Structure formats: C-alpha cells, structure tokens
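Box 4.2: Ligand-aware structure prediction
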Amino acid sequence: MPDITVKPVIKPELKVERPRLYKVILINDDYTPREFVTRVLKAEFRMTEDQAHAVMYTAHTRGLCVVAVFTKDIAETKATRATDAGRAKGYPLQFITEPEE
Ligand code: NFA
C-alpha cells in the first residue's frame, strides 16, 4: 500500500467590510430663502428641481431632512461646501453629517 498523506488546504478568510456610510442632513432655519436652499441642493447634490424642492420642503416643515448618504470623506466635503455656500451669502444654512447605524 502507498502511504498517501493528505495535507489540509486552509483557505485564508478574507474579511472585506463595506465602508461605514454617513448621512448628510439639511437643518431648517428661519432665514435662508427656500429658493436658495433648493438651488444649493441642485448644485451640490446633483438633484433635479423636484427632488431638491421636496428635500427643502421636508426640512422646512419637519426641522431636518436626510439629503443623501456617502462615504465619510464625500459626505463631509459636500456638507461643508453646501454650508459654505449659505455662509457666503450671510445665511445660517447648515448641513451636518452623521454616521449610519
Ligand atoms: N425655513 C426657511 C424659510 O422659511 C427655508 C429653509 C428650508 C431653510 C430648509 C433651511 C432649510 N425661508
């Protein structure tokens, strides 16, 4: 009888995790014109007029609205740029980021 040794092949476990996603949230205020908020949403988040208006109006009536979800870097960059667009006009418009559950 031939002496056959079978070596177990151990496949290394590849743990690939999805990057944590961050919400960009639009906060309502009493001063920023609705039309300006809609324009910023269109420019920074590539929304149509209807999408931007819906997000603006939800924040206006409910206090805030989730605009979109991105990786951390992109969420922070977009929130900063959109907030800065308001600040440049003297508006208190605020976009914040928050990690998803
Ligand atoms: N509440 C603002 C107004 O009545 C509009 C607004 C909506 C501001 C959403 C900020 C966010 N002019």
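In the box above, the bound molecule is phenylalanine amide. The CA atoms of residues 21 and 71 lie 5 Å apart.
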